[in-house]
Specification:
heterodimer, A: alpha+beta, disordered N terminus, B: alpha/beta, nine-stranded mixed beta sheet
C-alpha cells in the first residue's frame, strides 16, 4: 500500500505559529475567509463577556439591557441610545462602550477582569459594520442536511463524510494523510469496535484477503461480534454514571448489573437509537411494558443516593431528580441545564422555571429520599436473566404439578381423614399445628421461661388456649428469644389479643434499649394496630398501620408478615386470618440491623412509652412468610380436641381446614403427608430461588403525583411557585399526540425534529473514534460550548442518522469506512505546527487506549481473558486493604475465572474506584461524564509496569512465547510482537528486542530465586514444564512489550 | 514495509521546535534539565508543556505569597468545639436544661436527632485553662501539647458550613460544593501554582485510623481539572505509592534495563510518528523510575533523630498512624510538596463522647503540636501554613444517654472551631465568637468559602482569578463567594 500522498498538492502556506492559533477561527467551506460569522465569532464573545450581566438571567440583569436576543440588541433604549445599529458602529452604544477610554463607562467593567482583546473588539465592530446579522444559536436551529461540498480531489473520498473533511482541508491548503497500512487498520478497527486487539490469525486472514470489499467485510464481522456491545457500552456506562455502590458515606453496594446487561444487549441487537432512548427514559410508561423495557429505565436510577442517617429526605429527593435532569440533558441534548437550578441560566435561554419544569418530569418517583445502605432502594423490580426466567418457570411448573396432584387427591384426603379419625386414639397437640418454619412459640400460660423486666409481671387468666397473660399498661413479660426480625428477611409474628381498652401503647416488641430502638414493635395507636421494623429511630423505620380501628374487649388473631424486601410495602397485617387494609406510615428503612441477640422479647410493653392493656395469648414466630390460608388456620379459635369431637359434617369450613392442615402435617408415614411435604418443599424452593434473583432499581410514577415547585436559589426547602411538566421554550414543543410526561419527553427527544439529539449523539460517536468531537465540548452544545470544527459535517451526520432510522451500527460503519478514519496517524512537522490537536483531521486518530482497553488487551494477548457476556460484577486484584483503610467495607476479591473477565465487569465502588483504572483516567462514575480524559503520568507508568494483573499477563504472554512462539528467541520475539502489536517488527526493532530478551535470559540464568518469585504473580499457575529462568526472562520481556507506547496506543 | 520516512520529513527539522525536543536532546542536558522537562507534565500532560517551568499557570502567583506550602490536618467526623476550644462555662449553669427555642431559632436538625423529644444541654466535663500569652482558654486536659504552642495558633471560633451530614459536608470543605464532581483544594493549587519538586507530586494526601466515617477518593480528586492535579495518596508500609515497587523477582537493575529498552523502542516510534505525546511518555517512565528511589527515601523515617520522636511521639515510627503522617508531612514539605493533606478519622462523637475524645486526642495532640514545633525549629513555620479542623461542629444538646460522665453530640453546622498557624497568619489570636450555647455565631462569621479564599490569599492567589472553564462556565473553588479573613493576616 502506498504511503505517497494520494494526490499531489503543493502547499506553500506560511508556516508560522500565528496560523496555528488562528485555526479555530478558520472558516469552513461555508464562507469567505474574511467575513465575521455571528454564531462562530460574535456570539461567543457576547456570551463569554456580556451575558453574565446582560443575558438570560432576568434576576441579575444590569441596566435592563439584554444582549442575548435580537430584541435586546436592537432595542431603542430611549434618548437616542441603541445597543447596536446595523451598519453604524459609531451610533452603536456597545461599540462605544467597548472602545472608550473612560474607565467609568468601559464594558466589560474593569473590575470584572473580563477585558476584551483587540481582536474581539475589532470583530464586534466589523460585525456591526457588516449589518449586525443575528442568528439563533446554531445548535438550537433545526438540522438541515447540507449538500456535499465541491472538493479538490473527489477521488480521495470514500463516503459522504470525506468531502466535508477534505473541503475544510482544501481551505486550509492541507492534504489528507495517506491511508494507514492494513495491519494498522485492522488493529485500529478491532480496538475501536470491540475494545480488544486482533489476534495474529485475524491479522493474517485480513492481509490475505485481496477482495475489494475486504475492509467492509472486516467492519461487518466486528460489528457482529458480541464484543461490539461491550465496547459500545463502556462510554454509555460512564455517561450514565453506572456503578455498583450508592456513592455516599460508606458507599454501600447496590445491584444494577442487569441494566448493564440490557445496554450491552441493546447494542448487540442494534436497537435503533430512538427505541434505545425511549426505553431507557420511559420504558415503564410504555403500554404493557416488558420486563426488559422496565429494566432499561435503570438508566435514571444510576445516580448516587445518600443513606446517611442524619439526612433530610426532602433534600435528597430533590438531588435525585436534579441528577436525572442534568444527566439526561447532558447525554441527549448536550445542555448544561443545571446552571438554571439556582437562577436563570446565565448563557443559555433556560429559565429557572423551565428547569423545574424538567425536574417535574423526573421528580415523580416513589422513593423515600434515603437510600438503603446495603442493597437496592425503591422502586426496584425483580429482574431475572433469560436463563433465570426459564428456571423460574420450571420451579413454577413443579409447584403447579404437585398442587394439582394434591387437588386430585382431595377426595382421598377426606376419606383418609375419616379413616384416621376412626382408627386410632388421637393425641392432639395444638403446638404441632403449622410447625414448618416455626422458630419460637410462647403459650403464655405462665410456664414460658420468663425474664424479670421492670418488676411488674402480668397476670395469667383464661385464654384462647389454656391460659393467657393479661397486662395493665405497666406490666411486662420478658422472654428469651433469638428472633432477629430483620427487614431483609422473611418472618411472621402471630398471636391472639384481647385489648381491654384501646389506649395507645406497645403490645409486643423486641428492641434495643438505646435511643436507636433497633428491632420490631407492634403498637396500638388511636385504636389502630401498628407494625414497625426499625433500624434507627426515627431515620430508618418501616411501619404500617391498619386503616380501621381494631375491636375492643374481644379476642382476635393477629398475624404480621414481612417478605424480606426491606420495604414497608412488603409488610402485611392479617386479622383473624384475613388481610386487612393498611397504610404506610414510614418507609425509610435503609439498613439491615436488628435487635441484639440478648434483647428480650417484651410482651405487653416496649422499651419506651406506654404499655398495653388487655390479654395476649399464643405468640408464634416464623422464619417465613405465612400465607393467608395458613394464618386462617392459626386464627381458627376452635381447639383441635373440640373439632375432633364434632361429627365431620357439622364442622365449619374453617374447622375442617384446620383439622385437615393438622392431619396432613402430622399423619406420620401417610402417603398424603409426603404429598403435602412435597407441596411445601416446592413452594419453599420456588421462594428461595425467587428471593435470590437479581433486582434492579427502575423508574416508576407515583400516583397521585408529587407536585414540583421552583426552589428559590436551588435550596430544597425554599419552595417557589408550583410548575407543570413542560419543555423549554427555545426548543420545539412535545410532538403532536405525545403525553406531557416522561414518555412524551423521550418521544420528543427522538421525534427527528429536535435540533440537539442527533447532533449530540453523532458527535459522541465521532469522539469515540477520533478522541475529539466535531464539537469539542461534547457535554455542552449551548451558547458557551465550542463552535463545531465541521458544522456541515456534523449536520450531515445528524441528518443521516435520523434518515437511516437511528441505525447505530450503520452510523459506526459510516464513520469507520470513511477515508478520513482510514488515514495514517503520523504527525508530520507541518501538522504538528499547524494543527497539533488534529482539529482539521489531516491525519488519522492516535490515542492512548482507555483504562478498560489497556487491561483487556493485556488479558487477551496473554490468553488469560475469560469471556462471558454480562452478569454480576466481579472483583479482580486490588492492593491490600484499600477499601478497609478508607471506608468500613472489606474488599472480597474474586477467584478463578472472575479475575480475568473484561474490565467492563469490574466492580465499581464510586468513592474508591478500582485504582489502576482511576489512574488511567477512567470516568469516576460520581456524575455523568461524556468525554474521557487522556493524561500521561508517571503513576500510569508504574501501574503498567508493576500492577499484579499486568505482571501476571506478561508472564502468561511469556509462557505463550515459550510454548507457541517457536524455538529460537528471535521467533519468540516476533511472536510476542505480532501478538501485541499486530504488525511484524522492523529489523532494528527486532535487533533491539532480541538483544533485550537475551539480556534478561542472562540476568535470570544466575538468579533462580528471583525467577521463581517473578513467575508466581497472580492466581494463574506457571507451567511447571518450563524452566523458571526462561519463563522469568520471557516475563520481563513481555512486560516491556506491554509497556511500549505503540502497545498502549491506538494508531 | 519500512518506508515510513516518505510521509514525513524527518525529525531533524522537528527538533528545532522547542516543544518537541527528542530524548537525545534532553538526555544531553543535566539531570535537572531532564527533571524540568518531565515536570512540564509531572503527573501527566497532553501534547504541549504548560507555560510555566514548574507546571503552574502564567501569572501565578498573583502577588507575593506569605506561605509557600500548606499542611492541612483534616479531622474527619466533626470535633466538638465546646469540648476543645470554645470554652463555655455558662453551660454548667444550664446543664441538663432544655436548649431554649430562641437559640434554635427554627433551624434544621439532622434526621438523627430531629425526632428527639428533648434537647438537654450537655456541658463539657473537661478542664479548661488559660494558655499562652493571650490567655486563651483551651482544654488542656485533652490537649496538653497544643497548649504549649498556643501562641502560634490563630483560633477561629466562628466557622460555619451549609451541610449537616458527613459526606456533603466534607465534600463541601474539600471542593467548595456539597455534590461530588468539583476539584479539591489541593488540585486547584496544583493547577494554578504547579509543583516545586521534580520528583514528587504537588499534592499529597494521607489517611490515618481505620474506623469512623469513611473517606473518599474525591476528597483529593481533580474533578473536572486534568487528572494530573489530583492528590497522590501516600500510605505507610512497603508500597507508599500505589504500584511503586517492582514485582518481586525483578531487581532494580533489571527494571532499569527494561526501561532503557522501552525508551529506545519509544524513541524509534517517535522518530517515525513525530507525536510529542511519545516524548512525554518517555519522560513519564523516567519520572516513574526516579519516584521509585525518591519516595521510599522520603517515607523511611528511621534516620530521624531521637528528639524528632520526642516531638511527635513514638507513634511516629509506625506507618499509618497520624503521628507518622505528621512527620511525613514535614518531610514532604521540606522536599517542596506544596499541599499536604492529612485525613484523620474518628471524630464523630454521637455517643460516648468523653471516651472517644480521649482516644482521638491521645493519638493526635502530641503529633500536631510536635509538627508545629518541628516546623518552627527548622525555620519552616513562617512560610508553611498549617490548618487544623473538621467538616462541622457538634451540638450543645445531648444525643443519646447522658450521665455525669457520659454524653454524646450530634452534627452541628452553625458554628465550630478551627485553627491556622504559620505562613502569614497571626499567632495567638482568636477570631470570631459564638453565643453562650456555642450554637450560633455572634461575631465575625467565617464560611468555608472564606477559609478557602484566605488559604489561597496566603499562597499569593486571588481566589476569584483561579478559574477553569467547564460545561460552559468558569468555575472556581469559591464558586461566587468567599472573602479573605483580613483580621487574621499577619
Amino acid at each position: 500500500m502506498s504511503r505517497i500522498s494520494p494526490f499531489a498538492l503543493v502547499s506553500n502556506y506560511p508556516n508560522h505559529l500565528a496560523f496555528a492559533l488562528a485555526i479555530a477561527g478558520l472558516p469552513d467551506s461555508s464562507g469567505a475567509a474574511d467575513s465575521v460569522n455571528f454564531n462562530r465569532d460574535i456570539r461567543p464573545i457576547l456570551s463569554d463577556k456580556c451575558f453574565k450581566c446582560h443575558g438570560p438571567d432576568a434576576a441579575n440583569r444590569e441596566a435592563d439591557l439584554r444582549l442575548d436576543t435580537p430584541e435586546g440588541v436592537f432595542a431603542d433604549l430611549g434618548g437616542g441610545y441603541f445597543p447596536a445599529v446595523p451598519g453604524k458602529p459609531e451610533e452603536s452604544e456597545i461599540i462605544w462602550r467597548i472602545e472608550t477610554d473612560d474607565e467609568e463607562d468601559l464594558m466589560p467593567p474593569l473590575k470584572s477582569d473580563m477585558a476584551l482583546s483587540p481582536l474581539e473588539k475589532q470583530q464586534l465592530r466589523t460585525w456591526v459594520k457588516n449589518g449586525a446579522a443575528w442568528k439563533k444559536h446554531w445548535a438550537f436551529e433545526p438540522v438541515e442536511r447540507p449538500a456535499s461540498p465541491l472538493v479538490s480531489h473527489p477521488g480521495w473520498t470514500r463516503n459522504g463524510i470525506d468531502a466535508f473533511v477534505l473541503s475544510r482541508l482544501d481551505n486550509a491548503e492541507l492534504t489528507p494523510s495517506p491511508e494507514a497500512d492494513q495491519t494498522t487498520l485492522i488493529r485500529r478497527l478491532t480496538l475501536d469496535l470491540t475494545g480488544l486487539p486482533p489476534t495474529p490469525a485475524e491479522v493474517e486472514a485480513f492481509l490475505m484477503d485481496e477482495s475489494p470489499d475486504a475492509y467492509e467485510r472486516l467492519v461487518d464481522r466486528l460489528l457482529e461480534s458480541p464484543r461490539y456491545g461491550e465496547a459500545m457500552a463502556l462510554p454509555w456506562l460512564e455517561a450514565a454514571r453506572y456503578a455498583d455502590t450508592d456513592g455516599y458515606q460508606n458507599d454501600g453496594p447496590r445491584s444494577m448489573w442487569r441494566w448493564r446487561d440490557w445496554v450491552i444487549q441493546a447494542y448487540n441487537q442494534n436497537m435503533p437509537f430512538d427505541q434505545f432512548t425511549i426505553e431507557q427514559l420511559a420504558g415503564d410508561l410504555l403500554p404493557e411494558p416488558t420486563l426488559e423495557q422496565v429494566l432499561a429505565t435503570g438508566f435514571n436510577r444510576n445516580h448516587r443516593y445518600n443513606s446517611e442517617a442524619g439526612l433530610v429526605p426532602e433534600e435528597f429527593l430533590l438531588e435525585n431528580a436534579v441528577d436525572r435532569v442534568d444527566t439526561t440533558s447532558t447525554v441527549w441534548m448536550g445542555l448544561t441545564v443545571s446552571c438554571a437550578r439556582c437562577h436563570d441560566h446565565k448563557y443559555d435561554p433556560i429559565s429557572t422555571k423551565e428547569y423545574y419544569q424538567l425536574v417535574s418530569l423526573f421528580d415523580n418517583v416513589p422513593e423515600s429520599g434515603r437510600a438503603v445502605k446495603f442493597g437496592n432502594s425503591e422502586p426496584w423490580i425483580t429482574s431475572p436473566t433469560q436463563k433465570q426466567t426459564v428456571e423460574l418457570a420450571e420451579f413454577d411448573a413443579k409447584l403447579t404439578a404437585v398442587l394439582r396432584q394434591k387437588e386430585t387427591a382431595q377426595d382421598e384426603i377426606v376419606s383418609a381423614i375419616a379413616n384416621w379419625e376412626s382408627q386410632r386414639e388421637l393425641e392432639l397437640e395444638e403446638s404441632a399445628l403449622l410447625s414448618r418454619g416455626l422458630r419460637e412459640r410462647f403459650s403464655l400460660s405462665g410456664n414460658d421461661p420468663a425474664v424479670e423486666i421492670d418488676g411488674v409481671p402480668p397476670v395469667f387468666g383464661q385464654g384462647m388456649s389454656e391460659q393467657a397473660a393479661s397486662f395493665d399498661g405497666r406490666s411486662v413479660l420478658g422472654l428469651e428469644s433469638s428472633a432477629s426480625f430483620l427487614g431483609n428477611e422473611r418472618f411472621s409474628l402471630a398471636f391472639w389479643m384481647k385489648p381491654s381498652e384501646l389506649s395507645d401503647g406497645v403490645i409486643i416488641s423486641k428492641q434495643g434499649e438505646d435511643s436507636i430502638r433497633k428491632g420490631l414493635s407492634v403498637e396500638l395507636k388511636d385504636g389502630r394496630l401498628q407494625f414497625y421494623i426499625i433500624t434507627r429511630w426515627i431515620a430508618g423505620v418501616g411501619a404500617i398501620e391498619t386503616v380501621k380501628s381494631i375491636q375492643e374487649d374481644q379476642w382476635q388473631h393477629v398475624t404480621l408478615t414481612n417478605d424480606g424486601s426491606l420495604s414497608a410495602t412488603g409488610m402485611r397485617i392479617l386479622l383473624d386470618g384475613q388481610f386487612v387494609e393498611t397504610r404506610i406510615i414510614h418507609n425509610t428503612n435503609s439498613n439491615i440491623v436488628g435487635p441484639a441477640k440478648s434483647a428480650k422479647l417484651r410482651i405487653g410493653a416496649g422499651v419506651v412509652g406506654q404499655g398495653y392493656h388487655g390479654a395476649i395469648d399464643e405468640v408464634r414466630v416464623y422464619d417465613r412468610t405465612l400465607s393467608q390460608a395458613e394464618t386462617a388456620v392459626l386464627a381458627e379459635p376452635a381447639r383441635l380436641i373440640a373439632i375432633s369431637k364434632k361429627a365431620p359434617a357439622t364442622r365449619t369450613l374453617a374447622e375442617s381446614a384446620k383439622w385437615q392442615a393438622y392431619f396432613l402435617e402430622n399423619a406420620s408415614g401417610h402417603p398424603l403427608q409426603e404429598l403435602t411435604h412435597a407441596v411445601f418443599a416446592a413452594r419453599m424452593e420456588r421462594e428461595r430461588f425467587y428471593d435470590a434473583l437479581p433486582t434492579t432499581m427502575v423508574m416508576r410514577e407515583m400516583n397521585p403525583t408529587r407536585l414540583t415547585h421552583v426552589r428559590t436559589r436551588g435550596v430544597y426547602h425554599q419552595l417557589g411557585e408550583a410548575v407543570e411538566d413542560r419543555l423549554p421554550a427555545i426548543l420545539p414543543d412535545f410532538p403532536p399526540g405525545a403525553p406531557h410526561n416522561r414518555l412524551g419527553f423521550a418521544q420528543w427527544l427522538v421525534s427527528g425534529e429536535h435540533p440537539l439529539t442527533s447532533r449530540v449523539a453523532v458527535n459522541r460517536y465521532w469522539l469515540k473514534y477520533f478522541g475529539r468531537g466535531l464539537v469539542k465540548t461534547a457535554e455542552d452544545f449551548g451558547v458557551q460550548g465550542d463552535w463545531p470544527s465541521h458544522p456541515k459535517l456534523l449536520d450531515w451526520l445528524a441528518a443521516e442518522f435520523v434518515t437511516n432510522g437511528w441505525d447505530v451500527k450503520a452510523m459506526q460503519k459510516l464513520i469507520v469506512t470513511s477515508a478520513t478514519y482510514r488515514q495514517q496517524s503520523r504527525v508530520t512537522p507541518k501538522l504538528l505546527e499547524i494543527d497539533p490537536p488534529n482539529v482539521l483531521l489531516a491525519r488519522g486518530p492516535r490515542q492512548r487506549l482507555s483504562a478498560h482497553a489497556l487491561r483487556d488487551q493485556a488479558l487477551a494477548t496473554s490468553g488469560l481473558l475469560v469471556e462471558h457476556l454480562g452478569g454480576p460484577s466481579v472483583s479482580p486484584y486490588q492492593p491490600d486493604k484499600l477499601w478497609e483503610l478508607m471506608s468500613n467495607m472489606k474488599y472480597q476479591q474474586s477467584s478463578g475465572e472472575d479475575l480475568y473477565r473484561r474490565s467492563l465487569y469490574t466492580i465499581w465502588k464510586r468513592t474508591i474506584p478500582p485504582p489502576a483504572m482511576a489512574l488511567m483516567d477512567a470516568a469516576d462514575r460520581e456524575s455523568c461524564i461524556v468525554s474521557a480524559k487522556r493524561t500521561n503520568t508517571p503513576l500510569q507508568a508504574l501501574t503498567l509496569l508493576n500492577e499484579k494483573l499486568f505482571v501476571e499477563s506478561a508472564r502468561n504472554l511469556g509462557q505463550r512465547l515459550l510454548l507457541e512462539g517457536g524455538d529460537t528467541m528471535r521467533e519468540q520475539v516476533q511472536f510476542g510482537f505480532r501478538t501485541t502489536l499486530a504488525r511484524r517488527p522492523r529489523p532494528q526493532e527486532l535487533t533491539l528486542l532480541e538483544g533485550a530478551y537475551q539480556e534478561y535470559r542472562e540476568a535470570y540464568q544466575d538468579d533462580l530465586a528471583g525467577a521463581e518469585k517473578l513467575i508466581q504473580f497472580g492466581e494463574s499457575k506457571a507451567n511447571p514444564t518450563l524452566d523458571p529462568r526462561d519463563l522469568a526472562a520471557a516475563t520481563a520481556f513481555c512486560n516491556v512489550l506491554l509497556n511500549l507506547d505503540e502497545t498502549i496506543t491506538k494508531e | 514495509m519500512n518506508q515510513h520516512h516518505e510521509g514525513c520529513t524527518g525529525y531533524q527539522k522537528l527538533s528545532e521546535n522547542p516543544l518537541t525536543m527528542t530524548r537525545r536532546y534532553f538526555l544531553g542536558k543535566s539531570a535537572k534539565g531532564l527533571g524540568g522537562l518531565a515536570l512540564g507534565s509531572l503527573l501527566g500532560d497532553q501534547l504541549v508543556a504548560e507555560p510555566s517551568a514548574i507546571g503552574g499557570l502564567d501569572g501565578f502567583p498573583h502577588f507575593a505569597p506569605k506561605a509557600k506550602r500548606v499542611i492541612y490536618l483534616f479531622q474527619s467526623g466533626g470535633p466538638p468545639q465546646m469540648d476543645l476550644f470554645d470554652y463555655k462555662p455558662f453551660l454548667d449553669k444550664v446543664h441538663n436544661q432544655e436548649v431554649p427555642d430562641s437559640v434554635f431559632n427554627g433551624q434544621r436538625l439532622t434526621g438523627m436527632t430531629a425526632g428527639q423529644s428533648s434537647f438537654p444541654v450537655a456541658r463539657s466535663i473537661f478542664n479548661f485553662e488559660r494558655t499562652g500569652k493571650s490567655g486563651r482558654w483551651l482544654n488542656t486536659e485533652m490537649m496538653p501539647h497544643l497548649a504549649e504552642v498556643a501562641d502560634d495558633i490563630c483560633l477561629i471560633k466562628s466557622m460555619h458550613t451549609e451541610a449537616i451530614n458527613h459526606d456533603p459536608a466534607i465534600t463541601f470543605f474539600q471542593t467548595g460544593f456539597q455534590i461530588a464532581g468539583r476539584p479539591s483544594v489541593g488540585a486547584w493549587l496544583s493547577y494554578g501554582l504547579g509543583s516545586m519538586n521534580e520528583n514528587l507530586p504537588a499534592f499529597v494526601a494521607m489517611t490515618s485510623y481505620s474506623g469512623g466515617q469513611p473517606l473518599y477518593d474525591r476528597l483529593w480528586g481533580a474533578g473536572f481539572l486534568p487528572s494530573k492535579h489530583q492528590g497522590v495518596k501516600f500510605g505507610g508500609g512497603p508500597d507508599p505509592v500505589l504500584y511503586l515497587n517492582n514485582p518481586d523477582g525483578m531487581s532494580s537493575t533489571l527494571r532499569r534495563r527494561t526501561l532503557d529498552h522501552i525508551a529506545a523502542m519509544n524513541e524509534m516510534k517517535f522518530d517515525d510518528y513525530g507525536d510529542p505525546e511519545i516524548e512525554s511518555r518517555i519522560a513519564q517512565y523516567e519520572m516513574a523510575f526516579r519516584m521509585q528511589t525518591s519516595v521510599p527515601e522520603l517515607t523511611d523515617v528511621s534516620n530521624e533523630s531521637a528528639d524528632t520522636f520526642d516531638l511527635y511521639g513514638e507513634d511516629a515510627r509506625t506507618p499509618g498512624t497520624y503521628a507518622n503522617n505528621c512527620l511525613l508531612a514535614r518531610r514532604l514539605s521540606e522536599r517542596g510538596v506544596r499541599f499536604v493533606q492529612l485525613f484523620h478519622r474518628g471524630w464523630d462523637t454521637h455517643g460516648g463522647l468523653p471516651q472517644q475524645l480521649k482516644r482521638q486526642c491521645q493519638s493526635t495532640d502530641q503529633a500536631t503540636a510536635g509538627l508545629l514545633k518541628d516546623l518552627k525549629r527548622r525555620g519552616m513555620l513562617d512560610d508553611t501554613l498549617v490548618i487544623w479542623g473538621g467538616e462541622f461542629g457538634r451540638t450543645v444538646y445531648n444525643q443519646g444517654e447522658m450521665t455525669a460522665t457520659n454524653y454524646g453530640r450530634d452534627h452541628h453546622p452553625r458554628c465550630f472551631s478551627m485553627w491556622l498557624a504559620g505562613g502569614g497568619v497571626k499567632g495567638g489570636i482568636t477570631h470570631g465568637e459564638t453565643d453562650d450555647y456555642s450554637y450560633n455565631v455572634v461575631k465575625d462569621p467565617v464560611s468555608v468559602h472564606d477559609l478557602h479564599a484566605t488559604l489561597m490569599h496566603l499562597l499569593g492567589v486571588n481566589h476569584k482569578k483561579l478559574t477553569f472553564k467547564f460545561q460552559g462556565r468558569y468555575y472556581r473553588l469559591t464558586d461566587v463567594h468567599g472573602q479573605v479573613i483580613k483580621p487574621i493576616l499577619a
